[in-house]
Amino acid sequence: MSFVRAFSFLTVVSLVTYTLLSIATSFGPAEMPEFDKNETVRDIPTFGLGTWLAGKGVVVPAVEHALKGGYRHIDTALIWRNEEAIGKGIKASSVSRDEIWVTGKLWNTDHRPELVRKAIETSIANLDVEYLDLYLIHYPVAWVPETREVDNNTSLIDTWKAMEDLVRAGLTRHIGFSNFAPKDIKNIFQIASIQPYAHEFETHPYLQQQSFVDFHKKENIKVIAASPLANANPTYGDKYPSILHDAFWTTLAEEKNATVAQTILAWGQQRGTIVISKSTHADYIAENFCSQGIEFTKSELDEVAKQDKKLRLLNPVHWGMDLFEGLDAGAAEKEEPKKEEEERNLDL
């Protein structure tokens, strides 16, 4: 075969191969659609405002103040029942939507595939936005609608596939999960066509879960730190002394010329987690935001690692299952929760 004929033959083969590969690729995992309306906030801001337990009357000015003060990430959930107020706070801030990252969550009663889209559309309408930046499965638990009974006919796989459809429909830019155990993540990995973007779970100096955090980094999944100030929130009661009065942290804060809260939040950021701080007070909102300039030496980080108490604060044991199997302090306690605690934990 002459050189010219050989070259022509190889050219034809290459073109055919390229065409076949292009066709095959078109049937592969769906790509996230481009959001022309959001050219500014591409990556999740590493510091955000939490809105759990923020009443409607205070959340509007809190969100407005936070956004005007530089925050660009708002963490929400439908079950917290304050999305409409959050939306009003966003509008009042006059900050452009394309500069704000909004995270929402799918509640347990909406896991059925036919309900997933309705749930996010409700949140989008409540928040008065056109889309969400991130939508998380709040818990790996499916309940029968309008009950707390486990829905044995709905699996996490069913729900995740419906979540992927939300990305394809342009209702959210990214999807992920919250409060998942390793076994739950493994189930998602086995069937996912769209990469989970983030996992929000409890991690703070008293429950560091460093190996779990490292696992997410290896898998290129962002870690969003829920309750980064540990038991500083009075909601957790006084069973343990507040971390804000911990001798180690008060000493370290003095060395950093910062408040204890700022020092703890800065540690959360330096370890590579996205920190969600919750406050409705203007002074604390500003104080928390200023934590972003604090840095730690390796020796200081080593000392912080020794402060881990494996203290889990968020564990709705009354649901009758071990949600955090395989994780530090993951075993469900046998003690029956008090009625007021049960009602409080409903909105985690």
Automatic annotation (TrEMBL):
PROSITE patterns recorded: ALDOKETO_REDUCTASE_1
Domain of life: Eukaryota
Keywords: NADP, Oxidoreductase, Signal
Record-annotated NADP-dependent oxidoreductase domain positions: 48-306
Bias (Basic and acidic residues): 331-348
Annotated region described as Disordered, given as residue ranges: 329-348
Binding site for substrate: H138
Site feature: Lowers pKa of active site Tyr: K105
Molecular function, one GO term: oxidoreductase activity, acting on the CH-OH group of donors, NAD or NADP as acceptor
Keyword Oxidoreductase applies: yes
Signal peptide per UniProt: 1-24
Gene3D superfamilies: NADP-dependent oxidoreductase domain
Family according to the record: Belongs to the aldo/keto reductase family.
Identification of the protein by name: NADP-dependent oxidoreductase domain-containing protein
Native source organism of the sequence: Fusarium venenatum
